Each structure stands twice: as C-alpha cells, then as structure tokens.
UniProtKB/TrEMBL annotation:
Pfam families linked: Tmem26
TM annotation in the entry: 7-28, 34-52, 64-83, 244-263, 270-291
Biased composition annotated in UniProt, kind: Polar residues: 351-365
InterPro entries given in the database record: Transmembrane_26 (IPR019169)
Name of the protein this chain belongs to: Transmembrane protein 26
Keywords for this protein: Membrane, Transmembrane, Transmembrane helix
Keyword Membrane in record: yes
Region (Disordered): 319-365
Record flagged with keyword Phosphoprotein: no
Gene that this sequence comes from: Tmem26
Stretches with biased composition (Basic and acidic residues): 323-346
Length: 365
C-alpha cells in the first residue's frame, strides 16, 4: 500500500511539473524572450514539497489542505496571466491551412521514399515528431490559451483524485469533493473564456486584470478540503452556546456555503453584473451564468437560514432536556414518598383493628 501511495504521489507531481513547463514554454514562444524560462524555477517549490511529503508523510496528504495543489497553482497561474495579458487576435484559419500543408508535405515525403528506406523506422518517428512539434508551435495563441485553461482544470481534478488520501478525509468524502470540483470547473472556464473574448473587455487592460484577479481568487478553493469534513464537537458545557453548536453540527455545510458565496459564485456574480450594467457587455451566456450565480447565492442563504433554525431547535431541546429529567426525578421521588406514607398508614391501622378481637378472645372463658 505504501508503494502505491508513493507511485501516485510521484506521478501526480510529475504531471503538474510537465504541465507547468508547457505553460512556460508557451510564454517564451509568445513573448519571444528566453528570460521567461525563469518561471520554471517556481517548480522548485513543488519539488521541495515532494521531498518533504515523501520523507515525513510517506506520500500521503495533509489534513484540510493540499500543498501540492497550491504549489501547482503558484507554478502555472503566472504563465496563464502572461498569456491572457498578451492576447492578440490571430487568424487561426490561415495557420490551420499551414498545418494542413505541412501534413500534405509529410505524406508526399513518405510516398516518394523508396521501399527499402521504410526499414529504418527510426527516421519516420523522428520526422513525425518534428512535424508534430512544428504544427503545435503554429497553432494560434487563442487556441493555445484555451487549451491550457481546459487542461489546467482537468489537471486539478485528476491530480486531486490521484493524490493519496491523507488526514481524516475518506473515499466517500473525496468523491463528493471531486464532484463539487467538476461542477465548479465549468463555471470557472466560462468566466475566463466568455468574458475575456469580448472586445470591450479585451481593450480594457484594467478590466482584464480585475477578471484575472477574481479568477485567481476562485482557484484557492481547489487546495481546500473543508467543504466535506466535519468538525469534532466538544462535550463541555460551553458547547451548548449557539455559535459553537451551530458550527459543530454543520461545519461542512457552512464551509461549502462560505466558499461558494465568497470565493466563486458571489465574486463571479458581482463581475458579471458590472459588465452588463456599467460596461454594457450583454450576451446570452453572460446573462445565463449571472442568473445561475444569483440563484446559487440565494439558495445558499436560504440553506443557511434553515440550518440556523435547526441549530436553534436543537439547542432548545438540549436546554429543556435537563429540566425534563429533573422534573421526572422529582415526580418519581414524590411518588415513592407517597407510597411509603401509604404503606406506613396501613401498617399503623392494622393493630387498631385487631386489638379488640384479641381482647375479647382473652376475656371470654
């Protein structure tokens, strides 16, 4: 079991590093400056975390928080920021035609070769790899950026799945957490792609920075495991107070509501409303997701009120429980006392009834 945890920990972190390096490579291609390869040094933090985790935790995760996911965010998010800030409208159709021409040249090259040359399959593999890399480098910037966003979210979900379970989280809680991540990933992807593709937004660098800042803030929910773990309730008398009892009973629900309202749906709703009202950016997808965010926020507030009422009722039951128990004990003691008094009275009345009989029996000869 320890070997499987070790393998999963190493493979997951290796995938994180490779994906981060692809993002850095794309930034150097777009900027055409080799100095951006220095962004790859951010992966040293992930390598250091890997060594410490393997040494002290034997590859297993931590409680409440995943450092590997957090350091992966640190290594890949700056590259995505640079790509989005350097976004340019390119003609992807022209570049796709160039890719098709390269592929046709490869086919002609293979057809003109002699049959004896096909024995050397290594040359074919090298030529295919070279053309594949050239075609990837010719893909337009918008397609590359969208692909990095999509694979980034997939890597977060798959990587969290592959990482060994640590702390007090169970497999059932992990599956619930992954389903939550899948649901939020679609909204996050739409938030960046649909809003940033608008010309009114793209031509405003300050607005682009604000959108990317909110997008980065929403990424902080992925390293957290708080939404599926329940807090341990103390058995002391102080736990009878409403705030402590409320948090103990519904800690996972409260974390889920807080993450949704303050990290994702709430900020996304504010940004979308500003885009529609102030910047006059209106389309059917923006309106739909704004309505979706507003419904989620309202339903979470409704659930928060329902949980508060349930906790209040539970607190009243706890407070009335000792009173009811004391009244029952008082009633039982009162009944026992009356029973003893009745028995005592019956015991005293028996000699009074038998004494005349005994006296007559002794005096009758």
């Amino acid at each position: 079991m320890w070997g499987l945890d070790l393998l999963n920990a190493l493979v997951t972190r290796l995938l994180f590093v490779l994906h981060s390096l692809v993002g850095v490579w794309r930034v150097t291609v777009v900027k055409n400056e080799p100095r951006y390869w220095l962004l790859a040094l951010l992966n040293l933090l992930l390598l250091l975390e890997t060594v410490l985790t393997l040494k002290f935790k034997r590859g297993r995760g931590y409680k409440w928080f995943s450092p590997a996911i957090f350091l992966y965010l640190i290594s890949i998010v700056p590259s995505l920021w640079l790509l989005e800030m350097h976004h340019e409208n390119q003609h992807c159709n022209v570049q796709s035609e160039g890719m098709s021409q390269n592929m046709s040249r490869k086919e002609d090259f293979n057809q003109t070769r002699k049959p004896s040359e096909h024995i050397h399959g290594v040359d074919d593999i090298i030529e295919t790899a070279r053309l594949f890399v050239n075609n990837l480098s010719r893909v337009c910037e918008t397609v590359w950026t969208l692909g990095l966003h999509q694979t980034f979210l997939l890597m977060l979900i798959i990587g969290r799945w592959l990482l060994p379970i640590g702390g007090t989280i169970t497999r059932d809680q992990l599956s619930e957490l992954l389903l939550m991540f899948v649901g939020t990933a679609a909204d996050i992807l739409e938030f960046t792609t649909e809003t940033l593709k608008e010309n009114n937004v793209r031509n405003n660098p300050g607005l682009v920075c604000a959108i990317l800042l909110i997008w980065t803030w929403s990424m902080l929910q992925f390293p957290l495991d708080l939404a599926v773990q329940h807090a341990a309730c103390p058995s002391s008398a102080s736990a009878r107070r409403f705030p402590i009892l409320f948090f103990c009973l519904y800690s996972a629900d409260l974390w889920n509501i807080g993450i949704s309202v303050f990290i994702q749906d709430g900020p996304f709703l504010v940004v979308r409303l500003i885009l529609m009202i102030y910047f006059q950016v209106i389309n059917h997808m923006l309106v739909f997701f704004a309505v979706k965010n507003s419904l989620v926020v309202v339903l979470h507030i409704y659930r928060l009120v329902a949980l508060a009422l349930a906790a209040r009722a539970s607190l009243q039951d706890h407070s009335q429980g000792p009173k009811t128990e004391r009244s029952r004990q008082a009633q039982s003691s009162e009944g026992e006392r009356r029973g003893w008094e009745g028995e005592a009275r019956e015991g005293l009345s028996l000699p009074l009834q038998t004494s005349p009989v005994t006296s007559d029996s002794h005096s009758s000869p």
